[in-house]
Amino acid sequence: MKKEGKLIVFSAPSGSGKTTIVHHLLNQPKLNLDFSISATSRNKRGTEEHGKDYYFISAEKFKKHIEKDDFIEWEEVYTDNYYGTLKEEVNRIWKNGKHVIFDIDVVGGLNIKKKFPEQTLAIFVQPPSIEEMERRLRNRKTDSEEKIKERVEKAEKELKYSEEFDIILMNDNLEQTKQEAYKLVENFLSK
After folding, report:
1. Where are the domains positioned within the chain?
2. What is the CATH number that goes with domain 7-189?
3. Nearest in space to 157 (alpha carbons), one of 108, 95, 107
């Protein structure tokens, strides 16, 4: 893989606000960012689109990509439920002269940082508390009670990884956090 642009990683537990922050940064032309679309073997949900939200591929095809070493990072989250970042996706963005921004799970984010330590800014978005995060998940009204409990349990584990990131960005005021994220990314890109 050619090493060209920079990589901006945003990781966090569900309900921390990372996706909102990433969308905000993507809408800042000065930063010259493009979104890395992950591949997944899970089924589409709701209005998700192939090639926009994810690259939806079968578990079988995903395993073939693993064998061919086509991923920068990948993970089997549940049995036959894979997520990963294709090398060709990052190359596509770099060829367009842009920097790559990721909205990615904690383990995937740390794996990218390990592979590209100098080129990557890894930011962990931390919710003010587990209780607040749970409240945000409930307000979304997209998950069952069982799924919310699962996400809260996962968040408790994910929070333990926060110290391994370059920066922990506390999201207790979304507008302020968006401004802070912009400054962090702008400073990193100007180095």
Report:
1. 7-189
2. 3.40.50.300
3. 107
